[in-house]
Amino acid sequence: MTTSKRFPASAAHHLFTLSASGTALAVALFAASVADAQVATDPAPASADNTVSSAPSTPAPTVATQDATAPSSGPAAESSDDIVVTGFRASLRSSIAVKRNLDVVAEIVSAEDIGRLPDVSIAESLARLPGVTSQRTGGQASAINIRGLSQDLVSATLNGREQVATSGNRVIEFDQYPSELINQAAVYKSPKASQIEGGVAGKVELSTARPLSIPGKTLVSVNVRGVYNDRAGQNPDASEFGYRGSASIQTKLLDDTLGLAVGYARLKQANVATRFVGYDYTATGQNGSPAIRDLDGNGRADAIGYGFEAVQSGGNETRDGVLGSIQYEPTDTFRVLLDGYYSRFKSDVFRRGIRVENLQQTSSNLTDPTVIGNTIVGGTTSGIRTRTIQQNENRLDRLYTFGGNVAKDIGQLTLSVDGSYSRASSFFNDSGLDDNGNTTTTPTTLSYKLDGLNVGSFATSADYTNPAQNNFEGFYITPTKDTDRLYAFAGTALYKIDGSFLKSLELGGRYGNRRAERVKTTFDGFTFAAPVTVDSSNSSIAGFKGKFASFPDFLVADIGSILDAQLGPDRVVGQPASQPFTRDQSFTIDEKTYAGYAQLNFDTIAGSLPFKGNIGLRVVHTDQSSSSTIAFVDDPATAVNEGLNRYDNTRGRKFTDWLPQANFILGLTENDQARLSLSRQISRPRFFDFRNAVSTNLVAIGGTTARLDGSGGNPALQPFRANQFDATYEHYFGNSGSFVLGAFYKDIRSFVIGGVIPNYDFAANGISAPPLTGTPYTSVVTTGNLFAPINGNGGYVYGFEGAITKTFDFLPAPFDGLGAVLNISYNQSDVSITNAISGNTLSLSLPGLSKIVSNPTLFYEKNGFQTRVSMRYRSKFVAPQFGLSEQIVTNAAETVFDAQMSYEFPQGSPLAGMTLLAQANNLTDQPTRSYFGQTAQTGTLQYFGRQFYLGASFRF
User: Tens digits of per-residue pLDDT, 32-64?
Assistant: First the structure.
């Protein structure tokens, strides 16, 4: 890793370049709207507590702070003389109003009302915001990257409460949240002391409906859509058609003092992908490659990949989401809010295809080679190993979150308390058939040619459709269960001062208790009693289509029926002593946090300019530990089995973080303001990184003395820490748009990387030396090397952002329905990682970092008709790919297009309240493409298909 704490000299040049580009992009919009901005009505100015006015049909925006933030039903609806704006334009106006009045740097996406946010999940909506992008899972946005930093550094809250994760690794999978049940989402790019700590990249706050904010007595929303995936028809395990539906009701009772909200959403659709995956590279003559090959004659050993696979993944997934909310405000000074959310996600995906291995070991047999950039990417060879892929991946995720909040105003003082419980579970069963070791029918010849970021070609002497050449000697059934549980309590006291400078003082505290657990299990055995030969009763033939049509056809085995016949229907899994890896990979994480904060909120006049903001300090004490069972090394003399010879071990660490934070907003004119934010922030490591799972081994250091070494997790790992700077300039075109330029700098003081802890005292950490019986050693030194994640020195991340949102109300009809949302961001970092799996040792950029991210949207909305075209672009970035194992590769740039059309029937018509909708996602079937080192070294090429939606929504 390289580091530098100096702000690069080129930063000013980048800022000037981006500013000039953003200005050029916006000049026509800006100039054309000057007259419009002069006569437009500005949004109501923010009050001391940051409430804002919104369109009549838009529920009050939620401003996320600590758990104990007092609930509010928001301001009353505007008068009937106001022009009522609906649809996407109303959502934009609401988002702009919230952003303008917030006291932090943030991006907002609002739905006009519950059920109107059109994206498949909230992840798709977040990925359109400035400086935000996503990584696609199953063809859809799931993990969120903010300002060039990966999802590991993004935290999330729901209604102001920290969320647990179904990923088993802290990372929030945002596709778990149906957009129909989310009323507003915010990406906070700068923190304040009253917010829950966490999120060096940023924090995502999701908000559900507040029933006392609806304009009338009752609001009912129903949404039904059919789904079609044009690639699912190529896969025998997936259905081309699916559906998506939701229903919600919000009502006010007891003279509008009691509000009730209930919502349900369901999605069923295909999960399909056709992919080609190349494996990592090694220079010939190393790691099992028998001889050095210098085929291009440049004096350097050429690198060759281990192999590759071509796979069809197909299946179906369903997601159910339920929310409920009770809001009770019997007086102006007493408020109660209870809410809950439940989500269930089920995915059954079947992976079928062909795998080629052993290219490195057979590189000496290679003829007719194709060499590009010192790398062998094609040729003809013999002696390779190949097999069919027969794998089932079954996943069931559940998420529960419940919370309650009570707030009381006592004169100038507001007291509030909050309690919450959240639990996530994920059960993942990986099972399949294996012909490993079946050498008698293994084909011996291969001709192949990789084509970089395009699909290449290969052919072997095998017949993958012949049962006689494709019998199965082995199997695997290895379920993993992850649970993540959190309960938290918070209290806040806010005292309104209403002075010439200070407006309020806020004090608060929070206690959080989180436990995460991973349990790895397996069926006790991996080999059939005799090789299994399939026939027409338990297999079929499948093949590739489209860009992959030249690849060979292959057998598709009915894994379930074969396992039933060979092992019986009741296949009990557990952690048998004969399979110690199950305990090696199981662990428990306990994390207790104690936080307190003080925050001063001010609003004054500096010279003749409005000046407001907040200054605060948050102090967080963390007590973390991890428990597992540690195995002795097998003792060959006494046949001690490491599955039985184990002992309990717990390790951990305590530390305290002081997090000062300040946000300043200076009003320059009636429509212009500038922001400055200074803060320190943390992000806690992934659970897997500080797991207490260690395997040990003995290393000779001379004579009959050995040293104890080990590898695993590091429970003493501390968080990512960063000092942060944010600055923005914002211009508002009345109600109709905004123009924003921003810059940020993150001085990352500590980072988590893979490394080694030298002179690690295993004995002091409760890790014993293995028995020496049967070894050549008579003594052991228990201080050695622990290969584990460590806290390394950090570096910097900086960037610039430009965004313009504009509705063209001032144009003559019919062009007054036009609008645009344009944004672009530039990100840069000196943090790098060392990677050698391309056959050469390279320095790769920070994982998740795309230098350029742009998310433009053009729309037209007039007389109930609405159409939108959106684009999500990100330049190349580093991220893991998954083949035989997780490998770090470079992902090529990608551009994803989506489109939507709808028509809302007017009031007074027989179909009033009904909207017809058509939507298309991934219009160009944009694949994900990755490579090792250079584009000629194919990593993953993965195509997901296009998705089309057709349906209607109803509101009454």
Answer: 444 343 333 333 333 333 333 333 333 333 444
In 3D, which of 196, 156, 197, 161 has the Cα closest to residue 177? 156
Whether residue 456 contacts residue 938, with contact meaning beta carbons closer than 8 Å, is answered with yes
The answer to whether the peptide bond before residue 814 is cis (omega within 30 degrees of 0) is: yes
Spatial neighbors of 752 by CB under 8 A, at least 6 apart, are 685, 686, 689, 717, 720, 789, 790, 791, 792
Contact (CB, 8 A) for 172 and 156: yes
At residue 86, the pLDDT reads 61
Q: Which residues neighbour 305 within 8 Å (Cβ) at sequence distance 6 or greater? A: 278, 279, 280, 281, 359, 360, 376, 377, 932, 937
Q: Mean per-residue pLDDT for 14-18? A: 38
Distance CA 416, CA 307 (A): 60
Residue 379: C-alpha distances to residues 213, 278, 357, 458, 514 (Å): 67, 15, 14, 10, 53
CA geometry: angle at 479 spanning 709 and 539, to 5°?
125
What is the structure's pLDDT at 645?
A: 73
Question: Does residue 424 contact residue 165 with C-beta atoms inside 8 Å?
Answer: yes
Q: What percent of the chain has pLDDT over 70?
A: 86
**50, burial (CB in 10 Å: exposed 0-12, middle 13-18, buried 19+):** middle
Return contacts of 710-713, CB within 8 angstroms, 24+ apart.
710/760, 710/762, 710/767, 710/784, 710/785, 710/786, 710/787, 711/786, 711/787, 711/788, 712/786, 712/787, 712/788, 713/587, 713/626, 713/688, 713/689, 713/788, 713/789
| Highest mean pLDDT out of 57-61, 550-554, 660-664 | 660-664
pLDDT (0 to 100) of residue 70: 43
Q: What are phi and psi of 212, to 5 degrees?
A: -70, -5
DSSP secondary structure, 890-909, as one string: EEPPEEEEEEEEEEEPPTTS
- 886 CB neighbour count, 10 Å cutoff: 8
Total-model pTM: 0.85
Reduced to 3 states (helix: H, G, I; strand: E, B; else coil), residue 584 is helix
Residues 271, 140: Cα–Cα separation, whole Å: 10
| Buried residues in 437-448 as b, exposed as e (16+ CB within 10 A) | ebeeebbeebeb
What band does 514 get if pLDDT is binned at 50, 70 and 90?
Answer: very high
In the predicted model, what is the mean pLDDT of the chain? 84
Q: How confident is the model at residue 344 (pLDDT cuts 50, 70, 90)?
A: very high
Q: What is the pLDDT of residue 442?
A: 52
Whether 457 and 486 have beta carbons less than 8 Å apart is answered as no
Residue 492 · residue 68 · CB < 8 Å: yes
CB neighbours (10 Å) of residue 172? 25
What is the rounded CA–CA span in Å between residue 831 and residue 781? 36
**pLDDT for position 437:** 40
DSSP sequence for 616-635: EEEEEEEEEEEEEEEEPPPB
Q: What burial class does residue 681 get, using C-beta atoms within 10 Å of its C-beta: 0-12 exposed, 13-18 middle, 19+ buried? A: buried
CA angle, residues 390, 395, 397, in degrees to nearest 5:
170
- Binned at pLDDT 50, 70 and 90, residue 766 comes out as confident
Residues 6+ apart with CB under 8 A from 759: 783, 784
Asked whether the predicted pLDDT for residue 652 surpasses 60, the reply is yes
Secondary structure of 11-38 as H, E, C letters: HHHHHHHHHHHHHHHHHHHHHHCHHHHH
